[in-house]
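Technical annex B. To support the medicinal chemistry partners, we prepared a structural model of the target in complex with (2S)-2-hydroxybutanedioic acid, based solely on the information shown next.
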Amino acid sequence: MFETLQAQPADKILALMQMYKDDPRDIKIDLGVGVYKDATGLTPVMRAVKSAEHQLWEQQDSKSYTGLAGDPAFGDAMVQLVLGDAVPRGNVAAAATPGGTGAVRQAFELVQMARPDARVFVSDPTWPNHLSILKYLGIEVVNYRYFDDETRGVDFDGMLADLKTAKQGDLILLHGCCHNPTGANLNAAQWDDVIKVLQDTGATPMIDIAYQGFGDGLDADAAATRKIAAAVPECLIAASCSKNFGIYRERTGMLMAVSLDASAQKLNQGTLAFLNRQNFSFPPDHGARVVTMILNDDALRADWMAELEDIRNTMLGLRSQLAGDLQRLSGSDRFGFIAQHRGMFSRLGTTPEMVEKLRADHGIYMVGDSRMNIAGLNATTVPILARAIIDVGI
Ligand code: LMR
């Protein structure tokens, strides 16, 4: 039977992780997969997560099943974290998923169930796994212009023109903050223009918000998502706790479907539970429970927010250090965009050949499209990277 299988293309990001591990050089820098690392190169367990896990170990007296959509308390906590008071809670269906990727997958399946002919508009570029999942599900993809190779900012006119070609029954996938892979984001006025296009076309937005708290702060990063949710009749939101709680391997995410009224919410909630049952039955609980405990306990929440702010400010510091070093070494402002970008990533905007040269000559690993994980740097490796970038002639 299985001899009929064909080898599948390796995920570029995960393949890079392996190449880095296999590289025997002493000096090498991993700017590949989107994982935060502290100054010592460690991806730490956050303090509040440790405390909550400790409490959980002491207090948890059963590991029996929760609900198909996860513990409702997790749903409430996440809806509040992402949406605040933007829409009535009773209008939001929420289902826990295995990580943000699980939420993305469930969202696309939901769309396919509702509208088998839906097209999904995705930014060019987008997170490669968006494209991979869409292809796997056989959903038609339409690219919209996003990254401006010249400015390394958003090609907003191009984006808007392309989004205007969407119609009712289409889905427009947006990155709520900290665009992956480019790091280039819309400003508030531009988000308002996007909302206008959503209203004019009737297309449904889906917001992937995997990095809330990594850009300009927890509320600022959710501002566009909240505004969109309040401005259109329906929207989907795929949220992840992998990065902002640092619980990558616990696979903790949440799919939300916002609708206009409670009866649509009921139908959505039932459908999300059904989809979970078909794909994996009950979602993972450990990370979700830890997140719920943190969000519902004043002291744990304050400690978590403080540590998240430290992480965010560390990344901002690394951005300005790198932009500053490159300004000095190149004698130009052409790398200023690195300080303007937000989130874990910046797209350097160079060729795959240059990316390969950085790897071969300097042991610097970044994704082939020149996406660098800023959080993979530290104060010592920034100057090494800056010199290497100039050395290879970028
Ligand atoms: C990334 O983009 O590096 C992360 O979201 C990790 C992943 O699963 O690809």
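Notes passed to the chemistry partners:
The domain at 65-296 is CATH 3.40.640.10 (Aspartate Aminotransferase; domain 2).
The chain has a mean pLDDT of 97.
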